[in-house]
Amino acid sequence: MKNLVTLLVGLLLTTFSCTTQTGNQGATTVPYTEAKNYFVKNTYKSNAVAVKKIVSQQEFEEIFGAAATMGKDGMPTMIDFSKDYVIALIGTETNANLNPEFKIESLVKKGNSVILSYAKSAWSTNTPASYNIMPMKILIVSKQYDGKVSSLSLK
């Protein structure tokens, strides 16, 4: 009996001592929808990657324009600012020819903060394109997950 109790205590201690804690402990994954068929207006200028929290249609339209295209999914994604807000990730203007883009790694809420982690693809200008673009991502987030937005670039 004594050996059985010792064995059980040993197993419990081993189980709890192997538990690891992560940096996102207490964080909640935030669901989002990526808005499609928008472009950054040429009146918007920035010298660095910007992460913006946008809470109104007027503020959104100051930065973005609609870019409807032909086909089934050609209309811009509808955004209802009475229920949602936008997190916009906007790159600097570039003539990179390798389709520069952002990849969203995670969006989490921790306390009163919403943290966007992203990576940037390689933006090569070795053979420049004949046009300039401003790479961007537009994330539509429910106001249920409202908070101060910050970002973390992974690349």
Model description:
The termini are far apart. Helices cover 15% and strands 34% of the residues. It has one domain. A 4-stranded mixed sheet has the order 1-7-8-10, with no helix packed on it. It has helices spanning 2-17, 57-63, and strands at 28-29, 33-34, 38-40, 50-54, 64-66, 84-90, 102-110, 113-120, 136-142, 148-153. The longest helix has 16 residues, at 2-17. The protein has 2 helices and 10 strands. With 155 residues, the chain is of the alpha+beta class. A hairpin with a 2-residue loop joins strand 7 and strand 8.
Compact summary:
This protein is α+β, with helices and mostly antiparallel strands. The protein is 15% helix and 34% strand.
Strand fraction band?
25-35%
Count of runs of 4 or more consecutive helical residues: 2
Q: Quick one: how many beta strands?
A: 10
**In terms of structural class, how would the helical and strand content be classed?**
alpha+beta
Q: Element order, helices and strands? A: HEEEEHEEEEEE
Compute the separation of the termini in Å: 57 Å
Q: What general form does the structure show?
A: globular
**Describe the biggest sheet?**
4 strands, mixed
Q: What is the domain tally?
A: 1
Strand arrangement across the biggest beta sheet:
1-7-8-10
The multimeric state of the shown protein is: single chain
CA-atom Rg in angstroms: 22 Å
Average of per-residue pLDDT values: 83
> Which parts are unreliable, with pLDDT below 50 for 5 consecutive residues or more?
1-22
Relative helix content: 10-25%
